[in-house]
Amino acid sequence: MRGLEEEFIPSTPGKFKDKTYYSGNRQFHRCFASTSTMFLWALFLLALTASYLSFQSFINSGTRYLSSTWGSLHWEKQVRDSAQIHRVNGMSVLVTGAAGFVGSHVSIALKKRGDGVVGIDNFNNYYDPSLKKARKNLLNLQNVYLIEGDINDVHLISKLFDIVAFTHVMHLAAQAGVRYAMENPKSYVHSNIAGLVTLLEACKNANPQPAIVWASSSSVYGLNEKVPFSESDRTDQPASLYAATKKAGEEITHTYNHIYGLSITGLRFFTVYGPWGRPDMAYFSFTRNILQGKSITIYRGKNRVDLARDFTYIDDIVKGCVGSLDTAGKSTGSGGKKRAPAMFRIFNLGNTSPVTVPMMVAMLEKHLKVKAKKHVLDMPGNGDVPFTHANISLAQKELGYKPTTNLQTGLGKFVRWYLSYYGYSQEKSMKE
Ligand SMILES: O=C(O)[C@H]1O[C@H](OP(=O)(O)OP(=O)(O)OC[C@H]2O[C@@H](n3ccc(=O)[nH]c3=O)[C@H](O)[C@@H]2O)[C@H](O)[C@@H](O)[C@H]1O
């Protein structure tokens, strides 16, 4: 009887011709050979995959570093560099709406004095985005990094707080404009309510929590007839959806202050104007139309009373914003929990000297040296209020706020900027 070994391994290979054995052996060899080949192939494929993956990760890290899209290493570096503080006791500020009128001015003022600034703006087309791009170029010159993104983007906002321990948030991103709310109500809810809440959630979760200064509006005084408007006056009669969303913002921020210990300062801006302003505002569109020889519509209130605004020059508003950041108390929460009561403030930032709309037009005519073609119309029921007038004593006391530019001077500066930016010609004005 052949042993097991004999059965499979011939004593003299090639001599033994047993068919059964031979074919079994061949099968064994085939089987052995194919297993080892497969093993080798598997090893080879494994090595190939490993080297491919490491090459891919090398490529990825290179691309991540070089790419400027958000989340890339290069992007993170730009954000960190821009947030770097260059003065003693400086702050690191996230400015939302930084390509906007007030946002761009505040960002530059902060950066110039050595604070760290990172801007974010969604560059929407409520008015010509090319003006926003031009403001972005100004910010670039001052080394302010401006991210193109929406405050509703939860991932982007929380990523920003992961990268930088912002000490302050200057929240100026909003859907502005009183009358446009009738055309596009949802955009007010999207930016002024949903966007605000997204931002506050990120601030609440941040560690450390930043102090927040944000733009409310004089429009919250609505149909109030008591003048001048004081912060303690009633604000429960908004005349437009814009005003209602700003008032809602005041209530929402109060909630986050109360529950999570966020330090909040709300600023009620009064019809801000000046160089690099918003083309949708009356002083701006009137200038364009006067230069183009087109007529302008001047609204008139009940009983033929002229409408009036407490027009406030941009540099004064910037001082109020910076003063608010400088005096803001720290937020007290951490890990989403309030540790102690935090500061909650609301200030009027106005000029304290209202001017009627026809008077404003007369000033523009003087600066432009062109007569306006005026078309006077009774104020339509579109959300407008007949007048605004700020009492600024609280801001004076707490922030040292003191407006220094009257409308005549401020419009002169605006017109000089307008002409240098757009020129006199109609062709250039079409850029708006
Ligand atoms: O303080 C604010 O919180 C708000 O200020 C600004 O709103 P308003 O004060 O309404 O400014 P603006 O539109 O320039 O109209 C000025 C005057 O011109 C009158 N007006 C306007 C247009 C027109 O064609 N004719 C006209 O007579 C008009 O009836 C009004 O009497 C911001 O836009 C707003 O976003 C918000 O920040």
From TrEMBL:
Keywords for the protein's UniProt record, in alphabetical order: Isomerase, Membrane, NAD, Transmembrane, Transmembrane helix
Domain named NAD-dependent epimerase/dehydratase: residues: 93-327
InterPro entries assigned: Epimerase_deHydtase, NAD(P)-bd_dom_sf
Gene3D superfamilies: NAD(P)-binding Rossmann-like Domain, UDP-galactose 4-epimerase, domain 1
Transmembrane portions of the chain: 31-55
Any Pfam family matching the protein: Epimerase
Family to which this protein belongs: Belongs to the NAD(P)-dependent epimerase/dehydratase family.
Protein name per UniProt: UDP-glucuronate 4-epimerase 1-like
